[in-house]
Structure to design on (173 residues):
């Protein structure tokens, strides 16, 4: 069994410094043990994952929906990762998603017969649930953004550009 991500506090006190976790954890049914495989790169700060991921055994990849936790009028993004290495890739266009903690739900299913993913969202509004379903082609072929292990390269480039702009500003002054 594979478990990806989560949101909370390492202390267990959810009100004290909660943040997103990007760990990929494996649970062995045989040994009844958990092991952290690695940490997947951050898509953006405070990003969470939908309830299920679809595992493709042939290439040991997985697909999951991700979303920003603190954006009510946010989105779900289809992501592809690997069970063997810490990489994650954004695929396709985002799907609209209104996230509000315990009244929102999202999940991803694979329909083998149609070769399509089914993204499902639920929103509880005044005691009634609004269900939305989106079909996504499989395999997704329009890669949008690939994030390398640790996201370090993108972070370095961002800081280098900011540093260069600051240097130019100071030189101009």
């Amino acid at each position: 069994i594979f478990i990806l991500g989560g949101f909370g506090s390492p202390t267990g006190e959810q009100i004290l410094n909660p943040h997103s976790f990007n760990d990929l954890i494996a649970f062995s049914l045989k040994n009844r043990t958990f092991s952290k495989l690695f940490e997947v790169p951050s898509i953006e700060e405070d990003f969470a994952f939908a309830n299920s991921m679809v595992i493709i055994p042939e290439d040991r990849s997985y697909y999951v929906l991700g979303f920003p936790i603190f954006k009510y009028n946010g989105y779900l993004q289809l992501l592809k990762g690997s069970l063997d290495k810490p990489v994650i890739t954004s695929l396709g266009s985002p799907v609209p998603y209104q996230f509000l903690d315990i009244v929102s739900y999202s999940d991803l299913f694979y329909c083998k017969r149609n070769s399509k993913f089914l993204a499902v969202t639920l929103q509880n509004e005044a005691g009634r649930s609004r269900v939305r379903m989106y079909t996504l082609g499989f395999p997704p072929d329009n890669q949008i953004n690939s994030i390398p292990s640790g996201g370090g390269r993108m972070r370095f480039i961002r800081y280098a550009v900011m540093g260069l702009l600051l240097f130019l500003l100071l030189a101009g002054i």
